[in-house]
Amino acid sequence: MKKFYEQLTDKQPWNGLFMGNHAVARAMLEAGVKVITSYPGSPTPEIAEALNSVPQEMRDYHFEWATNEKVATEIAFGSSINGNLSTVFFKSVGLNVASDSFVQLGLMNLTGGLVIILGDDPGANSSQNEQDNRHFARMSYIPVMEPATPAEAYQMFLEAAKLSKQHQMPIILRLTTHVCHAKELIKFGSVGESKGFRADFDAKNGPYLPITRAVFPLKKKAMEKLDLLKKVSEKSPFNKIYSPFGSGDINGKKLGIISSSMPALSIMENLDKAGKSVDLLQINFSYPMPEEMISDYLKGRDEVLIIEELDRIMEYEIKSLAFDRNIKCRILTRGTHEEIMGELTSERTWDILSGHWPQVFEINIDPVHEPFANPRIAQMCPGCGHRSAFHAIKQALPEGTITVGDIGCHSLGFFEPYNMGEMLLSMGHSNGTAAGLTIGNERRKVLAFIGDSTFFHAGLPAIINAVLYDHDFTLVVMENNTTAMTGHQPHAGTGEIGEKISIDKVLESFGVKFIRRIDTYQQKKLAEYIKESLDHKGFSVVIASHPCMLKFMKQQRRKEGFVQKHVEIDQNKCERHLTCIEKFGCPSFKKNDDGSITVNEDLCIGDGSCRPTCPVSAIDFKKEAE
Amino acid sequence: MKDLNIYMCGVGGQGIGLLAEVLLRACHKAGYDVKGVDTHGLAQRGGTVISHLRIGKKIHTPLIPSGKANIVIALERLEAARAASEMLAEGGKVIYYDAEYQTIGNRLGKFKYPTHEELENTANAKKGEAVRVFEEDLADPRMQNIVLIKKIIELEWISGVDIEKVSEALVELMQGKMLEKNLNLLKV
Ligand SMILES: Cc1ncc(C[n+]2csc(CCOP(=O)(O)OP(=O)(O)O)c2C)c(N)n1
Ligand code: SF4
Ligand code: SF4
């Protein structure tokens, strides 16, 4: 049996069960992509996992975790205009960070080609919104392909790379969460001989400088390239009709559906189930829209229902097409706000279909499966240093303190029992937001959190601003030496890429006057520092540090002779103060029916950070583990 | 065989990912057309982890519709109860490893942690059944998923998925001591 990376790099064609993200990584190798960049974020980090599984000496591509999505995009741009086929990938909201450079890409002659992979997240499974990045494509004149399955993601990447090179333009491959993570059997092709990196930049291939009136010829060219691509989407095999029972008359009407990517799969299931002669036009090469194909489809039907996931984009474009061409077909659409939200699963699309055509799709009479009222909210891991920090900080805050959250594992501090970090916009927002909360505010203290990956990603400009104006708040850097939430990727401060960049030194060089550093397990000292820093007039920083324990424990368990330690609760000492479960809240504690507290040894990692929280010192290391 | 929807769930860190990958591969080896998808979200941080596995010739989406799971495999009792109530189909079967991972709501007394009887009642109300699995003195909690798979093989819930196919899948997915331990566990 071949190792994963051996499969991934196999020169020969083969068939394998692969996840969408891994399939796309394979496609990169087959397409001969030379430079790949990213910043971590769900749902795409497994693309990097695949690329990084290949030993350095076997790679003929360069992969790089950039400081943020904008930098990642710029690196991919730079390598593309040097003649290298390049790819950048990141999550949906990553495009907001990248956008200042991203919106220019369509204007540029990308000689090597550039594929942008966007991981959109309908349903907000792991994101702070469910923004629909098809909007961005339109404002930037960049084509969009939207695969429905892992196999199609693989094939579409190859097609996108080919078209991008051929027309020297960027192309977006828009993946959604469950396309990224779906698994199926995929037929892979071969990997060609390595071509080597190029350094062919020539300003004559441009112009590359869009200033004032120079913008117009570039914009014109971008639109002309889109016209060319429209011809491709008209003929694309990715746009096709699914017609399991033909397309006949139903009560004197011919009915059709237009959809794209994964929701189209839901509709296919429903068409199979309904068994009636309604068909589906699936538009997966979606922008520029294949107007002729869609016109023909509309003309051949009396009623067409458009079902797309998230915003009304295809819907408006198809309606205006029908208006311009005076097509008589009746166009139906989703109705409620609810239908603009979340993933369009097969049961939800059935309801949309039956809402319009109950004679074809019977109103759902299945019993409703009520959501189970016993929620499991994500929590920080057993032993997490962030928990110790929240526990200590909470006790140090004066009444009325406003706490500003940021993005990372420590966002979970908002949930019970800590309830800290009370608002959130985006990565790195906390310092700006905190500054705003201090203005004209003599009455309430303000405290902001930020993770260490985020510190480098988007934190610095607002920190500089806070130093300049000496805004009166305290920043707590929740340092854990990794980008934890997205799966432990390295960042500038971890020392895994180049030499570690010290957060302390960065802050000192900015001129921050109050800086304290402390391990979060030292809860008493941390609480003292927080009090001191809040008393300090002006901007202050406490670096609350502890390595991510999930990552640490994974490394420990791999070691020879590793023995798992635990803590135990001395039932004779325990007076049922319940601080451990009600205030500290490590998930390893178990409350029994008789009211006693015990430790779930499947979960406890024996780090002991809970020990100081017990007022009667009933928690201690379990003896046998010595 | 007719189409089969297998819904797997547990708590982040319990090894649902491996369980799902092993079953996906074993089903493929048994000659089925398979589609699967993991839905993790913030799962790594102690949230619910779910994986869908669908077997059949005419399956398009990898996501199992709610109330259409023929088999629920859970690594934890509360998650088993949740899946039985939200996902289990009429006449479906639940098998779960009886680990108890309380939620914060359970510990604070806001929600009651479900009992086996409650879980059984939910399954019975759908004319289904619930099977509890627990192994006293299991050396490593990370092997609970293999204990479950072994029981599923014994019960022959997925015809054609046997010790041999599961072992082959394990060999593809892991190595060293952990592989050895898991293979041994399957055989005894
Ligand atoms: C613009 C943007 N890019 C990426 C993400 C995905 N993301 C969510 S949490 C997170 C990790 C942040 O790491 P860090 O600040 O170190 O906090 P930790 O999770 O380690 O506590 C990332 C990258 C995002 N939400 N927004
Ligand atoms: S992954 Fe690391 S930082 Fe995140 S909650 Fe777990 S221990 Fe804490
Ligand atoms: S020692 Fe165990 S119970 Fe205590 S904080 Fe760590 S994991 Fe939780």
Structural overview:
- The complex is a heterodimer of chains A (626) and B (188).
- Chain A has 626 residues and is an alpha/beta fold.
- Chain A has four domains: 232 residues, Rossmann fold (3-Layer(aba) Sandwich); 118 residues, Rossmann fold (3-Layer(aba) Sandwich); 169 residues, Rossmann fold; 63 residues, 2-Layer Sandwich (Alpha-Beta Plaits), CATH 3.30.70.
- Helix content of chain A is 35%, strand content 18%.
- Chain A is built from 20 helices and 24 strands.
- Chain A has a seven-stranded mixed β-sheet, with helices on both faces. In chain A, strands 9, 10, 11, 12, 14 and 15 form a six-stranded mixed β-sheet that branches. In chain A, strands 16-17-18-20-19 form a five-stranded parallel β-sheet, sandwiched between helices.
- In chain A, a hairpin with a 5-residue loop joins strand 22 and strand 23.
- The two termini of chain A are 40 Å apart.
- Chain B has a single domain, classed as Pyruvate-ferredoxin oxidoreductase, PFOR, domain III (Pyruvate-ferredoxin Oxidoreductase, domain 3), CATH 3.40.920.
- Chain B starts with a strand and ends with a helix.
- Chain B has a six-stranded mixed β-sheet, sandwiched between helices.
- The model of chain B has no long low-confidence stretch (mean pLDDT 94).
- In chain B, helix 2 links the parallel strand 4 and strand 5.
- At the A-B interface, strand 8, helix 10 and strand 22 of A face helix 1, strand 2, helix 2 and helix 3 of B.
- Strand 8 of chain A pairs antiparallel with strand 2 of chain B.
- Bound molecules: thiamine diphosphate (TPP) and iron/sulfur cluster (SF4) (2 copies).
- The site of one iron/sulfur cluster has 14 residues of chain A, from loops.
